[in-house]
Amino acid sequence: MVQADLRRILSGAWERRESLRKSSQAYRIFHGPGEGAGWLARIAIDRFAESYWITDWESAPAAGLKTIAEFLLERGAHAAVVQTREAKGEERLGLPRCLAGEALEERLVVHEGVLKFWVQVAGVKHPGLFLDHARLREWLVQHARGLRVLNLFAYTGSLSVACGVGGAKQVVTLDLSKPTVAWARDNWDLNGLPMIGAEFISGDVFDWLPRLAKKDRQFDLVICDPPSFSRAPSGVFST
Length: 239
What we know:
Elements (H helix, E strand, L loop, with lengths): L2 H14 L1 H4 L4 E6 H4 L7 E6 L2 E6 L5 H13 L4 E6 L12 E5 L6 E5 L2 E5 L14 H10 L4 E5 L5 H8 L4 E6 L2 H13 L7 E5 L2 H10 L6 E4 L4 E4 L2 E4 L1
Parallel strand pairs: 3-4, 8-9, 8-11, 9-10
Antiparallel strand pairs: 1-2, 2-3, 4-5, 6-7, 12-13
């Protein structure tokens, strides 16, 4: 793919997101499977304020990644990092590398509509916010009022936050990783949500579901979005 064609495709994707730029600092600016061809169909570019996270599923050519980074810098990017991913369900995943600019080592706050989240683009395998859940978060803000919610495999708790902002009566956030549960708690606090009715549990979902059942805990809404790969004391989990 020649540089001019790549720039034309990226420019078209950028223009199609014009309305998103007015309401959010976190959104996907390019989705390769629907907007690209060849190696570009295996690329996604996510925006987090002025930091950009490029996901590469097929070892894109260096020249192509350089053009993408230049394109982003021209549009005000402070940093562009690339994360090369393995096949779905595999564990091998290194840290992202910076293509251009200077990636912040510390976390930064991004706004997604009425919601706020901590994200990080350096020294982590994922920035901490799945942008393809944006519509679901929007739906939860609109429909969670008064509900008792159980969020399984909660990661950094973005869906829990959406329920809290939407007026949920109770939100239980459960994930195996202690650091991500702490991150979820930080996201909750960032949005000014009260701790009354909020629980943050670090543990194995398959251990905790029987515990909750034994205590006769009941919920109006259960969110279940398991990761493609995880290790737990009970063994390896893979979709």
